[in-house]
Amino acid sequence: QLQLVESGGGLVQPGGSLRLSCVDSGFTFNRYGIGWFRQAPGKEREWVACITRSGTPSNLADSVKGRFTISRDNAKNTVYLQMNSLKPEDTGTYSCAGTYFGCSDVARDYYYWGQGTQVTVSS
């Protein structure tokens, strides 16, 4: 079982950067693939990125390729989402989630979810 907590969100200007962290307080973190999803007000939840339990492979949504990277440090029970060149359309609540299915872009494949962290990109 995972207990995921996100951090690192905030207000940033367009073109800026943020690094989100997803931390698990348990002992089985390295058994799960981890995904990041985001949801903007009035919009459906959108998959952003995922990474397998070993860290390879990983995958990113087309809308963030070239700007975001995902990585993990199993010794620290942490997955990171580095977000560069942020755009106003990146605004939303970012949540991490755990899956048995390696690296999936489908929300229903994820069993454990964090509460989310808010990212606002605005001048």
- What gross morphology would you assign? globular
Helical content, roughly?
under 10%
Structural class: mainly beta
User: What's the total count of β strands?
Assistant: 11
Largest sheet: 7 strands, mixed
Question: Could you tell me the mean pLDDT?
Answer: 96
Order of helices and strands: EEEEEEEEEEE
What is the gyration radius calculated from CA atoms?
Answer: 13 Å
Q: DSSP strand (E) fraction?
A: over 45%
Unreliable runs? none
Q: Can you count the helices?
A: 0
Distance between the terminal alpha carbons, to the nearest Å?
Answer: 40 Å
Give an overview in words.
The structure is a single chain. It is built from no helices and 11 strands. The termini are far apart. Helices cover 0% and strands 48% of the residues. By secondary structure, it is an all-beta fold. It is globular, with a radius of gyration of 13 Å. The strands form 2 sheets. Strands 2, 4, 5, 6, 9, 10 and 11 form a 7-stranded mixed β-sheet that branches. Strands 1-3-8-7 form a 4-stranded antiparallel β-sheet, with no helix packed on it. Strand 4 and strand 5 (46-51) form a beta hairpin.
